[in-house]
Amino acid sequence: MCRAKKEENNGAAPLRSVSGEVFATFASLLLVALVLMCMLQTGLSCAYFAQERKSALTAVLDGATAMAETYASEGNIVTLPGGDNELVERAKTGFELFNTSSDALVFVADRDGNILMHTGKDVAESAKIPQNLQEEMDSGKDIFLMGTMDDTLHDKYYIAGRRVNLGGSEGYLFAATPVHALAVYIRSILTMLLLSSAVILIVCGILCMVLARRITWPIEQISQAAKRLGGDFTARAPVTGCQELADFATTFNNMAGRLQNIDNSRGQFMGNIAHELRTPMTSIKGFIDGMLDGTIPESEYKHYLGVVSQETGRLARLVQNMLDITKLESGEVKGTPKNYDIWSTVTDVVLSDERRIEDGKIDIQGLGPTGTMVYADPDFIHQVVYNIVDNAIKFTPPDGVIKFDIQQENDMVRVTIENTGDGIAPDALPFVFERFYKEDRSRGLNTRGSGLGLHICKVLITLSGGQIKAESEMGKWCRFTFTLPAGKTE
């Protein structure tokens, strides 16, 4: 079986089921969403942590500034010529309190950027504050940055700084906290996110499997029905699921129903063809065999050869009608519509059957050309009128009547051909335009007919843009009515 599937896929990788595709899609989207959420949360956390560090360092800087200004009012708080060493020690001790209480490193630089005092080991005493930062603080602005400040610090720090009075001179005061606290913070955030994401993935994965199965089950049912449809036209898909899938299943079932009808019609068509061909061929074979074996005397050859000729003609007409129907239904025959007088077609058909009409003692009524214009193919309509009139002549009793009526109604022309006679049974009316249908029991249809004439009429009228219908009252009359697009009067 695996080899067969591989051959069906031309050696390609096995295809996944619809539910597998849906689950994979949902899982991929969920995974991408969680990754984006982690990245976004990490970015926001970094921004939040930096803002929080800035606020904390600003608070430390405010406190240290206030302390520096207090000591500066007593004298110079940095180790400079003439400085008060006792005051310097007191200031350094005060700054170290910030290091102890808030883990903030405090250091002081003079007006030239030289480090004069610090409370931690990460400060490089020989380093100088970058000139650009000095200029920014000289403008009265506080600075906040992350880094080593051109190797002033041995490790990365969040640093806040400002210009202050050191007592007798101006200088710069800085507060800094190590960046490694951010890594600890981010690690904690990511740990919680990963645990949450794992739980979400598991729960959502289960839900995705259930939802994918629920969504794709109707599709799988339609797929299975489609596979069965190859050999079983009774296969149908359940109409379930969402609106679109229900509509899809309904459309599939309608298609399957039409295929089933076509298959049934094909079987009936082949059976009808076999029956219609067998009858004249059996008659022809019987008469010829009778002549060959002497059953039919030579004196009657002419009569029976005439019968054979009639059956051969019937067989030829049947074959021609089937060819015509095939060409019409396949679209091979294209009409050439034009404006012309419908009465000319009716008159030509009646005149061509004048001999039969006289022999049958049939009265023709309503035949009065009035110049009613239609827009259709004259050959198509001639065939329609001929078939209907031919049936009317066959089934109109002696001294019967065939009546014609043509009326224009808005943009359509209605043509009515009615004949007296036995009529058509009500249960047979819906089927008179089907192929090979002959209502022999109730109407006494001529057995020489093939049952294709009225079907050809329906096809031709449909191609002409009109409609055709049959009406009847048993034992009294039968009426055929068809419509055509009205033409323009020249």
What does this structure look like?
With 490 residues, the chain is an alpha+beta fold. It contains 12 helices and 12 strands. The strands form 3 sheets. A 5-stranded antiparallel β-sheet has the order 2-1-5-4-3. Helix 5 runs parallel beside helix 6, helix 7 packs parallel to helix 12 (453-463) and helix 10 (378-395) runs antiparallel to helix 12 (453-463). The chain is rod-shaped, with a radius of gyration of 52 Å. 23% of the residues are buried.
Instruction: Provide the β-strand percentage band.
Output: 15-25%
Largest sheet properties: 5 strands, antiparallel
Helix content: 40-55%
Global mean pLDDT = 80
Q: What is the ordering of alpha helices and beta strands? A: HHHEEHEEEHHHEHHEEHEEHHEE
Distance between the termini: 73 Å
As a whole number of angstroms, the C-alpha radius of gyration is 52 Å
Number of helices: 12
Structural class: alpha+beta
Oligomer: single chain
What is the general shape? Answer: rod-shaped
In spatial order, strands of the major sheet run: 2-1-5-4-3
The strand count comes to 12
Low-pLDDT parts are 1-8, 441-448
Q: Which helices and strands occur, and which strands form pairs?
A:
Elements: H1 2-8, H2 18-72, H3 85-102, E1 105-110, E2 115-118, H4 131-138, E3 143-147, E4 157-165, E5 170-178, H5 180-229, H6 243-293, H7 301-330, E6 338-341, H8 342-352, H9 354-359, E7 363-365, E8 373-376, H10 378-395, E9 401-409, E10 412-420, H11 440-443, H12 453-463, E11 468-473, E12 477-485
Parallel strand pairs: 7-9
Antiparallel strand pairs: 1-2, 1-5, 3-4, 4-5, 6-8, 9-10, 10-12, 11-12
Helix pairs in contact: 2-3, 2-5, 5-6, 6-7, 7-12, 8-10, 10-12
